Amino acid sequence: MADNAKTPRPVYRNIHVTDILAYRLPAAGIVSILHRISGAVMFLLMPFIIWMFDKSVSTEISYDEFTAVFTGQAGWFFKLVVLGLIWAYLHHFCAGLRHLLMEVSHSYSKETGKSTAVTTLAVSIALTVVLGAKLFGLF
What we know:
mainly alpha
């Protein structure tokens, strides 16, 4: 009779592809995935970053060519790419600081993990909005 009174234990399984849209990832998981994505974006756009740096510091003529790219016909596209890089850098930086804080502090709770994840998302998005407004000439 004791076996019949036991409640069934929960079964943990891997998420199937069809469950991905319905699965709700916690804030810490979102920050972790975005940290990896931002690192990959910065790595893949490294040739563009090097080109921008080279054009901006070589000579006055190359600097004029560099700034002309952002004011030309397709300037909005290059500004969007740079905005993506700004977000990638800021998110990667903020998430990296969060990870360093977690490694230094050994008494880390679930609530602290959630609050630092939300803070990381909020700070990186807020800084991206401010720098994006400056990039697009809003102030």
